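Risk register update: the risk that structure generation would not scale has been downgraded. Supporting records follow, first protein first.
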Amino acid sequence: MELQEGDWVRSYGSGIWQIYRILRYIGKDPATGSKQEITTVFSKRFVLDSFKRSFTEDCCHPGFVEKLDKQAAKELSDFIEANPSLYAKFCKYEPKSIDHIYNARIGIQEGSSTSDIEKILSTNRVFNELEIEHYLRDSGLDTKEPAFWTAQFVSANHQCEHGYLVYRFSRVLGS
């Protein structure tokens, strides 16, 4: 069965969740580097398995998400009916932004500091996942040799443009 916004589900985190966003975009296959379609499911948790309130948000691959079975759906329906004010609070709950992080390995340039590299990479430009490694190489950074630091790029709230997540350079993480 196809997952849809509004579905009550179980996810890899415990409890009962409701899907509020499904995002499909083009990303990079980590094994081959080629383009692949990726789906991310965003859900907000209503209660723990013990039916104790536990509002939070998360996102994951749809393979970790399954709709509630009939028994669990009935238990949830009965719980909502018995706790209308808690359910109303949940309906008003706005999930926090969930950023996507892209960590790119870069070779350490002898005599360089993380702030030196950050100055090289600092830009207002946005990148899709397929453009980041080219940008790093065009900036004179080695992405293949050992002795790595990490150039971190962030896609704020999984921002998508033209079918791709878009990232901004954030920082360099040294050893």
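Supporting record for the second protein:
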Amino acid sequence: MEDIPKLTEEDSDSTGETDADSDRPPRDPKNGLYTFLSLLIFAVCYGGYRLIGQNISLIYALHESSPAEQLIQQTITEFGMAGVPPGTKIDYIRLHHNFDNDRLYFSLSVTDDMSDEDIAEELLPFESGDPERESRVMLFPDADTVPVYVYADVYVNNSDPYMSAMFYEEDGTQHLVLCTSRHERGLEKLFGSNKIPIKNEKADTP
């Protein structure tokens, strides 16, 4: 009977395997693919979350100091006007989203010298009662989130309490600001400006 050759330590080393190697499970060649797919899914989900946050639930303002004709015409329609009142020029059109009652602002500079009575009689597009004189209001005349406070005469639409007008004077220029929180959906699509994030949505309501 032939002797069974014994595997020496030297012979074991020549196989290239150790006891630890023999105990490991075989490697799955698809591990790299699984890792790549996991990272891809994470990137897609994170990108979708940021996109939704920026375009749906974000609190922002839109501001146009040189509005396009289509935006002007739609804004005029929102306030029941036939056109931009003679003796005025457009300062800006501004729309707030998810704060300040989603107000639409239409600011006009009065280029002709008019009294308070002329403003109410000739420029207001609605019937109103006596104005609230020297009322402190908050406005955003620039394309940012910095408010200014002015004292204005405030006129409220007799037929629509959500629509009002503010008449004030600053640096020798008279301004008439029309505002409403009732307007057609989709109005913001007519703005060509970038969204201005609002960091302090709890600011006082004008």
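The chain has five helices and eight strands. On this basis the risk owner (M.S.) recommends closing the item.
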